[in-house]
Design goal:
The structure is a homodimer of 132-residue chains. With 132 residues, the first copy, chain A, is α+β, with helices and mostly antiparallel strands. Helices cover 16% and strands 43% of the residues of chain A.
Chain lengths: 132, 132
């Protein structure tokens, strides 16, 4: 089951807007966690990228349910709330993906990946979207 | 156990900054939920206010662990991540509290509480704070 993006809010997903996602996850002890994170949208999936072994990675690897808010940086009262399911997790192309996100947010592809760090890309399908 | 606010970030809690909290909660089915919410800080507690019966209220009433991010509206790369425990839940003074929050965010106390709506205030003690 997927849902479509309300048309009046698609600008929040565009590369010009540079909006952040506030990604909520559930730790293994049942307590919540939330972090701002870069994202991209490929027309179907919300795409997140993190480093292998970080808390976000460990939780998402284990627990496929996520929720996030994407707020208009120009208006905090305008936002999209998404509940979704991780559909894909891959290291393939993940280093290129973080460079591509660096282009979106900082305008250049020179994202420094420390030696030994492995990047991982998570693709999320929205199951419920509400907008404000 | 409580923790202190890093001094360089106390401006995020001030009334001038008008920052939002992105509040993450865990639903009864174990999936995460996140919403932008107004907050205040009384020097010890983070204060949230919602309407009795809303999803946020039902979760917080049942599950005292919360997490939230407070981001500088002027710089999305500057934020405070808080994990906390609800220490108090009360309807007493809660209508005045939402009016006070309306003063903080909109500069006036005329917050419209629909007939029959009961407000509730949650006070959270921070257990872990990290800053970026």
């Amino acid at each position: 089951m997927t849902v479509s993006i309300p048309e009046r809010y698609t600008d929040l997903l565009g590369r010009e807007k540079k909006a952040f996602a506030y990604l909520a996850l559930v730790r293994s002890d049942g307590s919540p966690q939330v972090t701002p994170i870069w994202f991209d949208f490929d027309g179907a999936h919300f795409i997140f990228n993190t480093a292998r072994g970080r808390v976000k990675d460990r939780i998402m690897h284990r627990h496929p349910k996520v929720a996030f808010v994407i707020t208009d940086p120009d208006n905090p009262y305008r936002y999209m709330q998404v509940n979704g399911q991780i559909e894909d997790e891959t290291e393939e192309g993940a280093a290129d993906m973080i460079r591509s996100l660096n282009v979106k947010y900082h305008g250049n592809p020179n994202y420094n990946i420390p030696p030994g760090q492995v990047r991982v890309t998570y693709k999320v399908l929205a199951e419920r979207i509400s907008t404000m």
